[in-house]
Amino acid sequence: MKKALPLILSALFVFSLLSVNLNAQESYKLKYNFQKGKTYSFLSTMDGNFTQEAMGTEMKMSVNGNFSVSMKVDDVKDGKAELITALDSGRISTKNPMKDTTLSLAPFAGKRIKLTMLEDGTIEQTSIIDSIKFFNVTGLSQNNLIRFIKLPKGEVKPGVPWNMVSNDTVEMMGAGKMTNTINSTYTIVGKEKVRGHECLKVTYTGDVKNSGQTQVMGMNLVIEGTGKISGSLYFDPVMGMAIKNDGSMDNEMTMAATGQQNMIMPITQSVKTSISLVE
Fold it and tell me: What is the DSSP string of 187-205?
């Protein structure tokens, strides 16, 4: 046994070196791999709570929504996918002290837009096929029904974080726009089976800056704000597709109104979202 001990220790040492070397070499090139002619379906849900103060009065509102969206892959060429995207069905419910409302999005079903998306999730071009005015309290519009997390251009390793900066523009009431600048950190923390797929679990956190302006009922509105995001992305590296993305955002903004009345309105919001591939 004493003679065998050095051999056992040597074997364990070699095995540990081999394990470290294999783990060090483990890396992933994440990219979206849409298949030409295939239609992908996604279910998106949203729950939000909003509080706004104006002239000493506080108003609270909750919003719940769910949307079914399809993406037909029209063509894939040179690392670019041309996607025909449409809302299949949807519903938005709002609750506040004055009134509860449920809005069906059936009139907007089938209205298409065409997206050109790169392998890393960058939207290179957007063109509206079936134009329609599409706005509500959530800032939902035709071109932001589904948002894909932008992936890194190089290879990434588990446990090694990477940073991404994105600028997202959404429509506001009164034909205005608001830009959300998000500085995020992503990390592969492990593997998990989700909806029958062997996925990489990627957690993320980030800081948000909001800025926008619009005109409503003769008043000029300017919005500034900051917030935090966090969530988990489950990505199938073999399929090349996000299977699920659960996220949350907490945000504090200030809306300054000038015109017929001058006032400053603080706004806080807390929103949870989930987007899942439906097969």
Answer: EEEEEEEETTEEEEEEEEE
Element (H, E) at 52: strand 39-54
- Per DSSP, 38 falls in state -
- 245 in a structural domain: yes
Task: Please tell me the total count of domains within the chain.
Answer: 1
| pLDDT surpassing 70 at residue 217 | yes
Does this model's pTM top 0.90? no
Residue 139 has pLDDT above 80, yes or no: no
Tokens at residue 167, please? 């600028």
Looking at the DSSP bridge assignments, the partners of residue 208 are 182, 227
Please report which helix (H) or strand (E) contains residue 249, including its range: strand 241-258
Distance CA 47, CA 30 (A): 29
Identify the DSSP state of 260. Answer: S
CATH code of 218's domain: 2.30.230
Q: What are phi and psi of 268, to 5 degrees?
A: -120, 145
End-to-end Cα, the chain, rounded Å: 58
Residue ranges making up the domain that contains 207: 28-278
How many distinct helices (H) and strands (E) make up the chain?
1, 12
